[in-house]
Design a protein that fits this description.
This protein is α+β, with helices and mostly antiparallel strands. The protein is built from 2 helices and 12 strands; from the N terminus they run αββββββββββββα. The strands form 2 sheets. Strands 5-6-3-8-1-12 form a 6-stranded antiparallel beta sheet, with no helix packed on it. β5 (75-77) and β6 (83-86) form a beta hairpin. α1 packs antiparallel against α2 (165-186). The protein starts with a helix and ends with a helix.
Length: 187
Amino acid sequence: MMNFKTLFSRALLALALVSGSVFAGPMYHVSVNTKSFSGDGGLELTFAGAGADLSTATLSNFGGAFGEVLDASGVTGGVDGTLTMSSAQSWLWQAVTFGGLFSFDIAFDGPSSGVDGTTFAVNLTQGQDYLLAGAAQIELLPGAQPVVTGSDIALVTPSADVPEPSTLLSVFTGMGLLGFTLRRRAR
């Protein structure tokens, strides 16, 4: 009976320590330098998946001369705070004033399963024409590391992982179980 209790408590401890970080998705910082362009234009953000389960992209910490929303679908929030996109074909076409730096942070969450995965892309437009399609692109493929593509004017860098609240809870639960196990063993 004692072996079962030991096995059970160790299994619970291992589960508590690893469960918090399993569902957190990758995080990136995207910078788009438009100093080589002038005038008014658009920054188009698209997030779509073909044959994939729904996942979300959460964008925050926007910087740059953003204007009004020109067109949007499947998007909640805005560049003045936090913006959320669904992989069920979302896009945001945001007016911008070229000549400076635009930046934001992006985090992905949810399943990245399915046949083809999901793709997030940043495009630059002027009027109805594309100045630069695919200035930056992040592909989330099932069972593989994300594929990140930048360009001469766009830089995509991994962000430092910020612990999720569930991760901290898991760590404290694991520490509590470890303390409980050690105390029981000392008796």
